[in-house]
Each structure stands twice: as structure tokens, then as C-alpha cells.
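For concreteness, we quote verbatim a single protein encoded this way:
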Amino acid sequence: MIVDDDIAVAAAGDNPATAIRYVTGLRGRPLTEIVEELRKYSAEHDAMKVSKSFLIAKRALDPQLWRITGGEVEDSSNLSRLWIGDADAFRAFQHQYAALPGFPPEQRLVSTMMTIVLFDDIPSVGGYTTRASGDATQPFRFHSDPAGSGPWYTEGEFTTGPNGEQGLVFQVPPGGDPSQSTR
């Protein structure tokens, strides 16, 4: 989630929709409050045996990363890479990232994430990626990457709009299970 031009937050854990809503409610707050609020939110859920983890990125003037897991805050000063989520997914990430030497870091990262999300069968990994980036001169903004996922059993139908535009509509047929997804 982009909190503002200079702060972005990623979430992992059980029921990510509630974490997303919580983070977006922190817009307009100073960075120190955001870090503390997410630390408390993570700790409260950890006490209930509910996983809520966050990565916080600050882009300018002094770029920095924080990881919050189990109510504990770590900054990136002693770590080369911060990760939240499933350990099996992280191992797959490390393996895929290492398989792409010679590519620029951003291309390696995007390709690795898309491969894990779209092709690896890791039960804890969702069916899509959302990418945001920023640097010293550019604010955080979302990027569109070609990727998708959906229910395992779908039917497609070609459509023609009023201006002759053609499209393809997918839907789950009667009796289909929309909770079974495929990549």
C-alpha cells in the first residue's frame, strides 16, 4: 500500500484485507507513528495467534526499510534483504532470484515475484503481485505488470460492445467453485 509519496507498506499474514484497511487508515500520520501503530497491531494479533507482518519503506531523504513481525520491529541497518511471510516462499524466492544473474536488480525482483506467484505452487502465496516503486527523485507509485489468476473452473465468452470493441469475459459457471484458484 502506498501510504504517501514517501512511505509504502507491504503486508503478509492471515486475512490480509484487514491489515490493508488498517494501513490505509494510517495515511497522513508521521512515519514514527506508522511504525509504532503497526508494531502494536502486529503484537495484538500475535497474542491471538494471528499472523500480521509488515515491511515499511521510506524513500527520501534518508531511505530505510523496517520489518515488523510478531510485534517486533527490525530496521534494515544489519540486513541485506527483508522478507515477511512464509519460509517456503522465501526459499523459492531466493532460489529463483539466484537463477537470474546478470539482470538488473529490479528486473530480477519482478521476474522472481511473478514466477513465484504465477507458477510455483506454494499454498500461502496469493494469486497476484502489486508493485510500487520510488526513488530519491520520484514518489512511490504503482506499476502495472501483466499477471493474473482466477478460479480453476471458468468459462469464457467473447463480447462485442456498442462501439464494436471486442472483449473476453470469464465467469464461474453454475455449480463451479470460485474458491479453487489456479495460476
